[in-house]
Amino acid sequence: MFSRSLGLLFLVLVAAVAGAWLAGLVGALVGALLVMLAVIAADLWRAQKVDNWLRHNNVQDPPILSGLWGDLVDRLRRIVTEQRKQTQTHEQRLQDFLSAIQASPNGVVLLDPQGRIEWCNQTAAQHLGLDAKRDLLQHVVHLLRDPIFTKYFAQAEHDNEVLIDGRSDSLQKPFKLSLQLHAYGENRQLLLTRDVTAVEQADAMRRDFVANVSHEIRTPLTVLSGFVETLQTLHLSDSERSTYLNLMANQAQRMENLVNDLLMLSKLEGSPLPAITQSVSIQALTNAVQQEAQALLSMNLIDSQASQKLHFQAVPEMDLLGSQTELQSAASNLVSNAIRYTPGGGSIDVRWDALPDGRLQFSVADTGPGIAPEHLPRLSERFYRVDRSRSRDSGGTGLGLAITKHVMQRHGGELKIESKLGQGSRFSLIFPGARVGIQKIHQS
Ligand code: ADP
Question: Measured from the CB, is residue 346 less than 6 Å from ligand 1?
């Protein structure tokens, strides 16, 4: 700057001296003025070039200027480049934040101080039936139109969450949403949405289960305490006393069956999957099931019912890989159901079949009452019974098929039910080929 000023002064002096030499004092003034005008014109021309360059936003292509203007352009170029880099970094970080919020499994809606939507992620749009672009700057209460949310939004505090029905397109299954508002920034609010359908369903299932168990236990317990009171207050003959004691024993047995089934279910839910290194001989398994079946049949005979014809077909010399206790429980449930639901004189056929695709099937076919098609999909639900009193009278808990299905899932297999009303039923356990092995040691 200093050298430029010196240079300018020198030029003015030279022009003034030349002007004075040619035309005296007037010549000196005119010479100096002309030089100054030339310098101003040159500066204006350079300023115009710099202005054009900045206006066209083409930082990487600066005008080529020397001296002070050249330095100025260079400095400006560096400042603008630096600022651009910073803006790009900030934009990238903002995009990263938005992508992270987009990826969130929860919905996020940013609301301005008036409660209008400033931004929302796709999950929130899906949960609330919004259009992430079209609905921007719309008031969230006007869009949601849910009385529970409207009341919640109007509250001063939002410490709790509220549950509302989800609002996506009608083709989707109904779902439950949890909504919570959080204050942030200057009077802004963050609306978080969460799909809690599964949690709500699990909660409802747990409540139903507890209610069912309580009901199942309360009934025999009431009967039992009634008999106890009778025995305590009435003078009974020996035979009456023995009848009452038998009835009490039945109720106690019913509770024991229920507790055993509940324990089995909780064990199935809480233990690791059965190892494929443990092998169970099909022959031994069938023998154990047959013994249990015979014991049940002989009890029916004591109750003076005509017996059912029970037939076990030849058993293949094979092993199943899995848990002996669980497999025996699953197979026994099917056989004991067939005995309990098939009237006296009917027949029950138990067999193992190797299927052409390598799977192994254990099936129990009976000539019992059969089951109407509408009940079939629900039979393996906990406590689902076609005929409640019939199930209870025969010592049923309503949990047998639920246990069987669970065992089969744990062994990678399936429970198949075929039945026609009035024509009997066939319940089958189908094991995948990977769980079936040829016996190494033949058992007698
Ligand atoms: P339960 O202890 O009541 O027998 P399960 O879970 O074993 O419970 O069976 C569920 C229901 O399925 C039974 O209540 C019964 O209505 C029906 N069911 C099961 N096996 C048979 C069968 N062999 N014949 C007819 N109905 C059956």
Answer: no
Positions of E strands within 255-368: 279-281, 309-312, 318-321, 347-354, 360-366
**Which of 224, 241, 271 is a domain's end point?**
271
Q: How far is the CA of 257 from the centre of ligand 1 (A)?
A: 15
User: What does each C-alpha distance from 404 to 271, 328, 334, 350, 408 come to in angstroms?
Assistant: 16, 10, 8, 16, 6
Residue 115 shares a structural domain with residue 63: no
Whole-number pLDDT of residue 7 = 83
What integer pLDDT is reported at residue 64 of this predicted model? 87
The residues, any chain, with a CB within 8 Å of residue 77's CB and separated by 6 or more, are 59, 62
Residues 343, 444, single domain; the answer is yes
**Is it the case that residue 172 has pLDDT exceeding 90?**
no
CA 390 to chain centre: 38
Q: Is the CB of 341 under 6 A from ligand 1?
A: yes
pLDDT of 55 > 90? The answer is: no
Domain shared by 265 and 279, yes or no: no
Measure 282 CA to ligand 1 centroid, in angstroms.
Answer: 24
First and final CA of the chain: distance in angstroms? 113
- pLDDT tens-place string over residues 273-325: 988 888 999 999 999 999 999 998 887 765 556 788 999 999 989 999 999 99
CATH number at residue 159: 3.30.450.20
- Of the candidates 253, 251, 227, the residue with the CA atom closest to the CA atom of residue 241: 227
